[in-house]
Amino acid sequence: MTVLGNLLVMVALCKDRQLRRKKTNYFIVSLAFADLMVAVVVMPFAAIELTTGQWRYGEIFCLVRTSLDVLLTTASILHLCCIALDRYYAICCQPLVYRNKMTPVRVTLMLGGCWVIPFFISFLPVMQSWHTIGIEDVIEERTFNSSSNDTSCVFVVNRPYALICSAVAFYIPLGLMILAYQRIYITAMCHARQIGTLQRAGSAPYQAPHQHYLSSEQHRSSRMRIETKAAKTLAVIMGCFCLCWAPFFVTNVVDPFIGYSVPWQMWTAWLWLGYINSGLNPFLYAFLNRAFRRAFLMILCCGDERFMHQGSFGPSRPFSGSANGTSIALRLSFLPNRSYSDNSRRILSNEIESQESTAGL
């Protein structure tokens, strides 16, 4: 599932020109590549060791496998953080600010950082055995099982490495994601309320009292649905991330301070729970994207032209853009005889422009 889902995301970006126009989609496809490598390089050897109960590939390859594990999973988490920051700038800032912040050069630097930073907490310290300083006896005891003469590829770390690695790979990105999505949710709700106010102001002079009451109720109900959907979407994104990785990184920090007494069964369960996140990411960040879904249908249906323009917005359709995990309904089909003040038009224009930068996400 992890291989197919992430491979489909990468093929979609290569084939669909519209997807390549959005800066955020480059983070998504890079995330898909990291998760694909987790499924191809890391998971199979972890599964073999889990089922056979021993490591048969030597000490050097054990270090390489461990380094790749830390590198790819950390890169995946950092990509999630960059996606949150990109969506924060797209929704919470003016369009001009977003274009100035998320230039192609800055996007490239952010993508490079997602791959370079994990190297300094994976290959560099692991291959130099910095993570084993002071706990050599613990590692030797767990690597070799005297009763069965089997060897294991264990990854036990000392306190400094556990704290630094966990902070870089999880706790700092988690804090940034919480702050970004909190601001996104607040801004999205403000946008929804402003648009609802403009709609009511434009329709009020042309409605009878009972019609105005019904319209107000409809606007209130629509706004509640938008707020509920936004809250649920952000809760799913953050909930899946925390559920998959928090148990592992909490255990990773606590274990060195309690004498490495956490059972290996618990370590294995938490590690595979983190691997599952690589299979969920395509569904959370791509399959929920209207433009990606259209590309997927084109690929899976062998280029059927019925899906070429699916999801395009006509001039008289309500624009329902899902921006950064939150859905903001922008009604564009105003009646021709409705008059708005210059201030109202300016606000509505700014709202529409700010959402168009991430339409379909």
From TrEMBL:
It is a multi-pass membrane protein. Keywords: Cell membrane, Disulfide bond, Endosome, G-protein coupled receptor, Glycoprotein, Membrane, Receptor, Transducer, Transmembrane, Transmembrane helix. It is found in: Cell membrane; Endosome membrane. One of its GO terms (molecular function) is G protein-coupled serotonin receptor activity. CDD domains: 7tmA_5-HT4. Residues 5-285 form the G-protein coupled receptors family 1 profile domain. InterPro entries: 5HT4_rcpt, GPCR_Rhodpsn, GPCR_Rhodpsn_7TM. One of its GO terms (cellular component) is endosome membrane. It comes from the Eukaryota. Its main location: membrane. The chain crosses the membrane at residues 26-48, 68-86, 107-127, 161-181, 230-249, 269-288. Pfam families: 7tm_1. One of its GO terms (biological process) is adrenergic receptor signaling pathway. The keyword Disulfide bond applies. Gene3D superfamilies: Rhodopsin 7-helix transmembrane proteins. Belongs to the G-protein coupled receptor 1 family. G-protein coupled receptor for 5-hydroxytryptamine (serotonin), a biogenic hormone that functions as a neurotransmitter, a hormone and a mitogen. Ligand binding causes a conformation change that triggers signaling via guanine nucleotide-binding proteins (G proteins) and modulates the activity of downstream effectors. HTR4 is coupled to G(s) G alpha proteins and mediates activation of adenylate cyclase activity. Interacts (via C-terminus 330-346 AA) with GRK5; this interaction is promoted by 5-HT (serotonin). This is 5-hydroxytryptamine receptor 4. It comes from Umbra pygmaea.
